[in-house]
Amino acid sequence: MDRVPALEEPLKKLLGGPTAKVMAEHLDLHTVGDLLHHYPRRYEERGQLTKLAELPLDEDVTVVAQVADARVHTFNGGRGQRLEITITDGSGRLQLVFFGRGIHKPHKELLPGSRAMFAGKVSMFNRRMQLAHPTYAKLGADAAEADDTVDIDSWAGALIPIYPACKGLESWKIAKAVDAVLPSAQEAVDPLPETLREGRGFVPLPEALLKVHRPHTKADIEDARRRLKWDEAFVLQVALARRRHADGQLPAAARRPVPGGLLDAFDAKLPFTLTEGQEKVSEEIFDDLATEHPMHRLLQGEVGSGKTMVALRAMLAVVDAGGQAAMLAPTEVLAQQHHRSITEMMGELAEGGLLGGAELGTKVVLLTGSMGMPARRQALLDLVTGEAGLVIGTHALIEDKVQFHDLGLVVVDEQHRFGVEQRDALRGKGKQPPHLLVMTATPIPRTVAMTVFGDLETSVLDQLPAGRSPIASHVVPAQDKPHFLARAWERVREEVDKGHQAYVVCPRIGDDEEEAKTAKGKKKAEEAETADKRPPLAVTEIAEQLKKGPLQGLRTEILHGRMQPDDKDDVMRRFGAGEVDVLVATTVIEVGVNVPNATAMVIMDADRFGVSQLHQLRGRVGRGSAPGLCLLVTDMPEASPARARLNAVASTLDGFELSRIDLEQRREGDVLGQAQSGVRSSLRMLTVIEDEDVIAAAREEAVTVVAADPELAGHPALRTALDALLDKDREQYLDKG
Question: Among 605, 534, 645, 508, which Cα is nearest to 125's?
Answer without folding.
Answer: 534
